[in-house]
What does this fold into?
Amino acid sequence: MLIAALGISLGVLSAVWVGWNLTLDALWQPTDRTTVRRILFLARVKEGETVVDLGCGDGRVVIAAARMFGAHGLGIEIDPLRVLWARAWARLSGVNGSVRIMRADMYGADLSHADVVVLFLSPDANYKLQDKLLHELRPGARIVSYYHPMWGWEPEEVGVAKSGYPIYLYRIPEKPGNELHRRKQTVRQEDF
Ligand SMILES: C[S@@+](CC[C@H](N)C(=O)[O-])C[C@H]1O[C@@H](n2cnc3c(N)ncnc32)[C@H](O)[C@@H]1O
It folds into this structure.
């Protein structure tokens, strides 16, 4: 009886969790390790820089940034279970001191200290984030988006993931009133 009740509760909780995940702008899909390295090499991450992964999942990108490049990693993740997992993994990897995992909605995250922002999200999420990235990131900051391009922005470079899919590198221009923004205005609704 008790086991049956436990099973039903677990089933209901899992269904609620899966249902809630389906409402997010990006579902969880981990980046393979080779591609994680390619993303970080494409961004040319340097020691001491701050790498932010919006929608960090289990934290693999920021953990690799800290381990391989001596960077500070900030992972922002909305799913509490993945946050716990990412924190545990960071601790086990010995990078607890240089990696922070925050349970937060990425659309409200403060990006002003980021040198590199990593995205593996969806076309919708990228579109919603574009103005925020332009307004909050410092000139020269890099944005690396795996699989999905930014709407109307011209990439500085395009790398290739292990799967063959593209990895787009963008850079916030040095001057305000920048080019990237103007190009975004030209995106038409039909492009969705
Ligand atoms: C495709 S996965 C990428 C995971 C990780 N960045 C990687 O490359 O392995 C997208 C992640 O974004 C998270 N996510 C979706 N919407 C979010 C939001 N509004 N704020 C924070 N995280 C979000 C999901 O929970 C999921 O873990």
Notes: Residues 184-192 have pLDDT under 50 and may be disordered. The helical segments are 2-22, 33-42, 60-69, 80-92, 123-136, 179-185. The chain has one domain: 34-191. The two ends are 51 Å apart (CA to CA).
